[in-house]
Write a structure and sequence with these properties.
Structural class: mainly alpha
Largest sheet: none
Strand content: under 5%
Distance between the termini: 15 Å
Radius of gyration: 22 Å
Number of strands: 0
Number of helices: 18
Shape: globular
């Protein structure tokens, strides 16, 4: 009973905290876009792309493999975390020290170069607390991470609003990230000590063995960056800051939604890792439920954005980013594929197939960069948007194929047709009442969608209550 309730509690609290964080992030973007304009927001997006670059280079596959390893039965958490925390700290320090050198290779404005150094400093804190996420995942306490990130986001928004109101300039807007990461790190580190003692360890033999296992995921992370953020950097090099700003006004909206698949995958990953080789039926049941949840989330997102993209952009970016509406309609398909890419990526990782995943993502990255180099010079941000969607589709195809071939698992599509039908029902009021109040349409159509899911029996009452039922208790009580 305790474990089932903890899972339900984690889902509810994490979702609420993440939704609030997303709202705050969008509020922050609204202030930043209006304050900096297209050119300035493009510079801001370029700096954030380098934050993603730093995260990719220093990742080394540590997060996913750490979560997997401490979830194994009999794992020595203190040894694993002590050594991995030390590796992460050293790699983050190295990134901070070389960040000024990185700026020399680009002819960016001075404020962008300074911003790159600031985000390198913020990465020292973000990279450190992210390693601790595995502890909270194993102990079914991801609610604490979500709350820590929410507090950090509140701090960031406060700094952004202060910078805008007092006209403090671009550097303070970027520095809001540093304050965010520092606050989140302090909170998460403090709570992590409840579950495990954290001491720096320098067991170099263990480092060698662990890095040999994690390095394929590290390479995969760099490859993922190549197709996930390289478009922004290529736009900044080949086009103007305004082009970057238009593209990222739309991209930021979707980027703040991708926490859903990452959060859900994070919650189920320890259970999947524990069951994949010892309880196949349980592994497939949880995988199928997760896939179904992703379909249920993706359908209304795609339908809603197709009809409401212009309203979303006006709300977030203001009248100066009207071109971003069409970009958002294209990118929503990339978002849909990201959900399912995250699903299959997680299965490949828990199945010890990270090397296969690396090669799969490599193919997608090569396709992405090649297409961007060819089409961005002529079609700018429109090309970048279409190529993002194509790339994510390639990732889903290849990872799904690998999952079915190597893990012998194929997700159940039993309820998918009626879920799509519910999405069609949702689209009717959006089409008929197009131009009416945005919030009324968004909330009303969402309610209609979920009513349709229930009427079409896409969601069973038993599924809604399963987390608190006796069956749900028995299902999760096997966790170590």
């Amino acid at each position: 009973m305790v474990i089932a309730r903890k899972i339900a509690y984690n889902v509810v609290v994490s979702t609420v905290a993440k939704v609030l964080s997303t709202i705050l992030a969008l509020v922050s973007i609204g202030f930043i876009t209006r304050y900096l304009g297209k050119e300035g927001f493009g510079n801001y997006a370029t700096v954030l792309a380098f934050l993603s670059f730093f995260a990719a280079v220093s990742d080394l596959g540590l997060y996913y493999i750490t979560t997997r390893e401490i979830s194994r039965a009999g794992a020595d958490e203190e040894k694993i975390l002590g050594n991995i925390f030390s590796i992460r700290l050293l790699s983050s320090l190295a990134i901070f020290l070389i960040s000024p050198i990185v700026t020399l290779f680009f002819s960016y404005p001075k404020e962008v170069n300074e911003g790159i150094i600031i985000v390198a400093a913020s990465f020292l804190f973000s990279s450190s607390y992210q390693i601790l996420n595995g502890v909270f995942q194993k102990n079914l306490a991801m609610d604490k991470v979500a709350v820590g990130e929410l507090i950090g986001k509140i701090v960031q928004v406060a700094v952004v609003i202060t910078a805008v109101k007092m006209q403090l300039g671009f550097a303070w807007i970027i520095s809001s990230l540093l304050f965010n990461m520092f606050a989140s790190f302090l909170i998460v580190f403090f709570w992590a000590k409840k579950y495990v003692r954290i001491h720096l360890r320098f067991d170099f033999d263990y480092w060698k063995l662990f890095l040999k296992e994690s390095m394929p995921m590290g390479v995969a992370t760099i490859i993922t960056f190549a197709y996930f953020k390289m478009d922004t950097i290529l736009l900044s090099v080949m086009k103007t800051g305004s082009d970057v700003g238009i593209y990222n006004a739309a991209y930021k909206v979707l980027e703040n939604i991708t926490f859903f698949p990452a959060m859900i995958a994070g919650l189920v990953m320890p259970i999947l890792a524990h069951s994949i080789f010892i309880n196949r039926d349980r592994f497939e049941e949880i995988s199928n439920k997760t896939f179904k949840v992703f379909v249920i989330l993706v359908v209304p997102l795609v339908v809603g954005v197709l009809f409401l993209a212009d309203d979303v952009i006006r709300l977030i970016g203001g009248a100066g980013f009207v071109e971003s509406g069409q970009v958002l309609r294209i990118l929503v398909f990339a978002l849909a594929f990201i959900f399912f890419g995250q699903f299959f990526n997680t299965l490949l990782i828990v199945g010890n197939l990270q090397k296969r995943l690396m090669w799969t993502l490599g193919i997608a990255a090569v396709a992405n960069i090649t297409l961007n180099l060819i089409f961005i010079p002529k079609f700018s941000y429109t090309a970048a948007a279409y190529i993002s969607a194509i790339t994510e589709f390639i990732v889903v195809l290849l990872t799904a194929y690998m999952t079915m071939k190597k893990l012998k698992y194929k997700p159940s599509l039993a309820k998918t047709p009626v879920i799509v039908l519910a999405g069609v029902v949702m689209a009717v009021p959006l089409f008929v009442f197009k131009g009416y109040n945005f919030f009324v349409l968004a909330i009303g159509s969402s309610i209609i969608y979920f009513i349709a899911l229930w009427l079409f029996k896409a969601i069973e009452t038993s599924e809604i209550t399963s987390l608190i039922s006796k069956k749900g208790v028995q299902e999760y009580d096997e966790l170590p």
